[in-house]
Design brief:
The structure is a single chain. The protein has 1 helix and 9 strands; from the N terminus they run E-E-E-E-H-E-E-E-E-E. It has one helix spanning about 80-90; strands spanning about 15-20, 25-35, 40-55, 55-65, 100-115, 115-125, 130-140, 145-155, 180-190.
């Protein structure tokens, strides 16, 4: 008689938990491009954020971005770098003195396959709120949660008009693309 081996796979079901996003361990990079194909990129910090889960499903969450923390990493000259950062912070772009934060509010998180999720959220920039969808690779266990992905944002929807072809169609080839990208690698830990 042959030995029979029974392998039991236990799925750990996580109870209702709240995870807090770690500012130190999380990274958000931005990238904006021009019609010529050239681009600038940099980093931006999370002020704070929480994700609520129940029985391994993400219920909702909220991420607050510190708009004053915008940096540029591709320009080496200190004066040119500072000029771009100040320009991004002024009224031409994000009006940081008036709107110091941006808010991403998770509305629905739907599992597609493996660790890939379709996220529906409301994004608020400069007091303008619009729905946005994006894909994230998410892993959660009782000790930590990690989310990696990219969000394409249409700045013209958020009243960011500077060299926007949506707002100024007669710019010719001197425009800055309306779509800018946020690449995120978020790490969160349970609050208790």
């Amino acid at each position: 008689m042959k030995n029979a081996f029974i392998i039991l796979i236990m799925l750990v079901v996580l109870p209702s938990m709240t995870f807090e996003i770690s500012q130190d361990k999380s990274i958000i990079k931005w990238k904006g491009s021009k019609s010529t194909g050239s681009y600038h990129d940099g980093n931006i910090l999370i002020e704070n954020g929480t994700i609520n889960i129940d029985e391994n499903a993400i219920l909702n969450g909220e991420i607050i971005i510190d708009m004053n923390s915008i940096t540029c990493i591709d320009i080496e000259d200190e004066n040119s770098n500072q000029y771009l950062v100040e320009h991004l912070k002024n009224e031409d772009f994000f009006s940081v003195s008036t709107f110091p934060i941006a808010l991403l509010k998770l509305i629905n998180v739907k599992k597609k396959k493996n660790d890939e999720y379709l996220i529906t959220a409301d994004l608020t920039i400069k007091d303008q709120t619009h729905p946005i969808d994006f894909i994230a690779n998410i892993k959660i266990n009782k000790d930590a949660a990690i989310a990696i992905g990219k969000i394409n944002i249409d700045r013209s929807k958020y009243n960011i008009k500077y060299k926007s072809k949506t707002w100024y169609p007669d710019l010719g080839d001197r425009f800055i693309n309306d779509i800018f990208e946020l690449y995120f690698n978020l790490v969160a830990f349970p609050t208790s």
